[in-house]
Amino acid sequence: MEGQEIAKQLPQGAVHQGLALKIDEPESLSISEMGAPAEGLLVMLDQITDPQNIGAIFRSAAAFGAKGVILQDRHAPVLSGVLAKTAVGAVDKVAHARVVNLSRALEELSELGWRAVALAGEAEQNLDAVLDSQPTVLVLGSEGEGVRRLVAEHCDALGKIPMPGGFESLNVSAAAAVALYEASKVRAKEETGS
Fold first, then answer.
1. Contact status, residue 141 vs residue 155, Cβ threshold 8 Å
2. Which residue range is the domain that position 187 belongs to?
3. Rounded to two decimals, what is the model's pTM?
4. Distance CA 28, CA 36 (A)
5. Which of 26, 34, 90, 138 is the most buried (most CB within 10 A)?
6. Which tens digits make up the pLDDT trace of 55-108?
7. Are 55 and 87 a contacting pair, CB within 8 Å?
8. Is residue 16 one of the residues assigned to a domain?
9. Is residue 99 part of a domain?
10. DSSP character string of 27-88
11. For the purposes of burial, counting CB atoms within 10 Å of the CB of 179, is it exposed (0-12), middle (13-18) or buried (19 or more)?
């Protein structure tokens, strides 16, 4: 196929160098498959729909050793196209689960030994104060609404990222990177005993 023929098969604005592959989305795991054994970190996305943000979150999850990402079945895009490109291979390295009900998923994870911590700007405590070395689900909400009330009620703690610069919020993918970094620091301290 010539370059122009390939371009016709791709989304508008897609960049290629005379080669395009179509692959299937990685297989989704169930919550019980992802949650057992209870160890490490999981990331849960509450109504985050932007493919570039989700791709960047997958990339951060891979960089900081998260075990998996939990997405809403109806509100999350497929793990291909712009999302996969932004993730730079992380969708193939980090497991994911698609669930219908996040609150129910948090209940199931709690029964398996997981602790849920939601990022919330209105939280009273800083994120580093509510994190520990227990198996943890970091719950991130959409930029407009944040973590929804019912999902937050199923969390064990709320934590905020302190921003001494006075800015009110971060892009959700930047907040995910900061939260994953903080969680990895806590885990490293616990492992080394310092």
1. no
2. 28-192
3. 0.85
4. 15
5. 138
6. 999 999 999 999 999 999 887 877 777 777 788 778 888 999 999 999 999 999
7. yes
8. no
9. yes
10. PPBPHHHHHSS--SEEEEEES---HHHHHHHHHHHHHTT-SEEEEETTTS--SSHHHHHHHT
11. buried
Count: domains in the chain: 1
* Domain assignment of residue 181, yes or no: yes
Q: What is the mean pLDDT of residues 1-9?
A: 71
Contact 64, 178 (CB under 8 A): no
- Cβ atoms of 90 and 176 closer than 8 Å: no
Question: Which CATH number goes with the domain that contains 182?
Answer: 3.40.1280.10
Q: Are 125 and 160 in contact (CB under 8 A)?
A: yes
Give residue 39's identity as a one-letter amino acid code: E
Per residue in 169-191, pLDDT tens? 789 999 999 999 999 988 777 66
DSSP-assigned beta bridge partners for residue 42 = 68, 137
First-to-final CA distance of the chain: 59
Name the token pair of 123.
């939280």
Query: Encoding tokens for residue 39?
Result: 């160890």
DSSP code, position 126: B
